[in-house]
Amino acid sequence: VKFITLSPFVKPINYKYIYFLSIYNDYVNDVNLNKNIGFIGMFSENEKNVLSFIENINGKLICLGCNLKNSNNIDNYDNINTLDLIDKLKKCSYIYIREHNDRYSGAITIALSLNIPVIMKKNIASLYNIPAIIYDKNINELSYFINNINIETYKEIKNNLKNFANNTINKNKLIMQNIF
Questions:
Q1: Which residues have CB under 8 Å from 75's CB, separation 6+?
Q2: Which of 58, 74, 111, 180 could bond 118 through an S-S bridge, CB–CB 3.0 to 4.6 Å?
Q3: What's phi and psi for 96, nearest 5 deg?
Q4: d(Cα 159, Cα 157) in Å, to the nearest integer?
Q5: What is residue 109's predicted lDDT score, i.e. its pLDDT?
Q6: DSSP code string of 74-92
Q7: Cβ–Cβ < 8 Å for 50, 37
Q8: How would DSSP label each residue in 150-167?
Q9: Helix axes 106-114, 151-179, angle to 10 degrees
Q10: What's the whole-model pTM score?
């Protein structure tokens, strides 16, 4: 018996499991350095540093699925349907993956599928083993990098992400062929 899990946090005991990173292909090839940061899900106390980060980079936080206090640099879209969510994300330069240690973040699949660079804490990036723009303790560590990134570097990040996603899609096909 083999099981597929979509999360590296799920490790069934006494069963063989295969971690399967779910990705589809709807790549955004546009170079979009508008400093819009997509955020999907519920906002918690742990994410308060994201608000100062948005101010430090003179960006905009696009909140999808939660509702924060309105300001000039926060757009809220609560109860948004999937197609509108993807439309909003395609206008973002980055997707922020919040810190978690107990479940899979669907935002990762969306970011990889759309080829939008992800920002995440180093320990989370190492669990998923995906290319990401990483910080150690506080997202504000990336302010200088985001404020000074050039088009060539951004294109390289997107290209690395796209190559990773394509390789993962091919690996997933093999996994599925071997299971069935």
A1: 60, 61, 62, 63, 88
A2: 111
A3: -85, 125
A4: 5
A5: 84
A6: EEEETT--HHHHHHHHTT-
A7: yes
A8: -HHHHHHHHHHHHHHHHH
A9: 110
A10: 0.82
Give the chain's radius of gyration (CA, Å): 17
Please tell me the predicted confidence (pLDDT) of residue 40: 85
Quick check: 77 and 89 in contact, CB under 8 A?
Answer: no
The predicted structure's pLDDT at residue 123:
87
**With contact defined as beta carbons under 8 Å apart, do 92 and 38 qualify?**
yes
Exposure on the CB side of residue 76, measured as CA atoms within 13 A: 11
Burial of 78 from C-beta contacts in 10 A (0-12 / 13-18 / 19+): exposed
For residue 118, count other CB atoms closer than 10 A to its CB. Answer: 25
Which residues of the chain carry a pLDDT beneath 50?
none
**How far, in whole angstroms, is CA 92 from its chain's centroid?**
11
